Amino acid sequence: MCWTHQPKGHDSGGVTTTTTSPPTSPGPVTNRAALTAATAVAPVVWGTTYLVTTELLPPDHPLFAALMRALPAGALGLLLSRTLPRGAWWWKAAVLGALNIGLFFPLLFLAAERLPGGVAATLGAAQPILVAVLAVIVLSERLSLWRLGWGVVGVVGVGLVVLGPGAMFDPVGIIAGLAGAAAMGIGVVLTKRWGRPEEVSAIGFAGWQLTAGGLVLLAPTLLLEGIPNRIGAPAVAGYLWLGIVGGLLAYSLWFNGLRTLPVTATALLGLLSPLVAAILGVVVAGETLSALQLVGFALALAALGAGQVIPRPRTRKGLPS
Question: Is the pTM of this model over 0.90?
Answer without folding.
Answer: no
